[in-house]
Design brief:
35% of the residues lie in helices and 0% in strands. It is mostly helical. It has a domain of 25 residues. The chain is elongated, with a radius of gyration of 19 Å. This is 6231_t:CDS:1.
Length: 51
């Protein structure tokens, strides 16, 4: 059973790692959209832009 558990864990890790996005690099002066995650769980910001 221990070998099956470790095999299943390795299989899940492989699948998870395949779905990860690689880091993007930006040059100084590039315009990018920045997501404001801090606004997700704070007070109601119904009319505030999230991007």
């Amino acid at each position: 059973t221990i070998t099956r558990v470790s095999a299943a864990q390795q299989k899940q890790k492989t699948r998870h790692d395949q779905g990860l996005r690689s880091e993007r690099s930006f040059a100084i002066g590039n315009k990018v959209l920045m997501y404001k995650a801090s606004q997700e769980n704070s007070r109601s910001n119904k009319l505030d832009p999230k991007w």
